[in-house]
Amino acid sequence: MTEHLATIRRLAADVDTTALCDATPGIRVMSAALRCRSANPVVCGPARTVRCRDDFLAVIQALEQAAAGDVLVVDGAGRETALAGELFARVALNKGLAGIIVDGGYRDMRFVSTCELPVYSRHVTPRAGTTIRPGVPGETVSCGGVVVHQGDIVIADHDGIVVLDPADAVARLTAAAEVMATEARVAERLATGATLADVLNLDEHPAPLRFTV
User: Fold this and answer.
1) Lower CB density within 10 Å: C or N end of the chain?
2) How far is 150 from 48, CA to CA, in rounded Å?
3) pTM for the full model?
4) Do 82 and 187 form a contact (C-beta atoms < 8 A)?
5) pLDDT (tens digit, 9 = 90+) per residue, 136-188?
6) The predicted structure's pLDDT at residue 188
7) How far apart are CA 87 and CA 210, in angstroms?
8) Half-sphere exposure of 169 toward its Cβ, with a 13 Å CA cutoff?
């Protein structure tokens, strides 16, 4: 598994989420409402999942259980209560986590906004949750409108967050790399003066579409 993850991370370093979406129709894409709150948006790692509602005790437990390279994925049902903050980010940095994604609130932006740990959340709020109810760590959750299983591969960058099945992540990333190679060749042609019509076969493309409306 370690070697498999190393391959995934190596491939992911050279592709972006747009290419993954182009190469994989139906890929799980989290809601754009989950926004990067830190200085670094780039994430790649296996999901460490936790489900909780307005109480972050389970987030603390999941953070303690998380290993270096994991992405903490918190299903907070999109509520505005803060389920993590500065101290969580500091612990995650110390442990070498790949990122924190919270479908709920995050706080302490004075620190988080300059933090190198990728931190995503749906809301920013000063109001913290309670620590009196256990949550559900390690189970399948819903985050950003998509299903995330523990161990799924979470990849994020400036364009958004996608989720891959670890069993076919290498194939998806390889296909995305091919998309990016094709785009690079197109960019080279554009740099020499070609137009979009030249590189996209614009004259031929609309013809079969005229009778599909």
Assistant:
1) C
2) 5
3) 0.90
4) no
5) 899 999 999 999 999 999 999 999 999 999 999 999 999 999 999 988 888 88
6) 81
7) 58
8) 27
Can you give the residue ranges of every domain in the chain?
A: 2-172
Q: How far apart are CA 145 and CA 28, in angstroms?
A: 9
Superfamily of chain region 2-172: Ribonuclease E inhibitor RraA/RraA-like (3.50.30.40)
Q: pLDDT, tens digit, for every residue of 78-87? A: 999 999 999 9
Q: Which residue has 């500091």 as its token pair?
A: 90
> Is residue 102 a contact partner of residue 84, using CB atoms and an 8 Å limit?
yes
Q: In 3D, which of 20, 6, 7 has the Cα closest to residue 183? A: 20
Distance between CA atoms of 96 and 186, rounded to whole angstroms?
A: 38
The residue assigned the tokens 């959750």 is 141
On whether the CB atoms of residues 100 and 89 are closer than 8 A, the answer is yes
| Euclidean distance between CA atoms 62 and 184, whole angstroms | 41
**Residues pairing with 28 in the sheet:** 163
Tell the burial category of 40 from Cβ atoms under 10 Å away from its Cβ (0-12, 13-18, 19+): middle
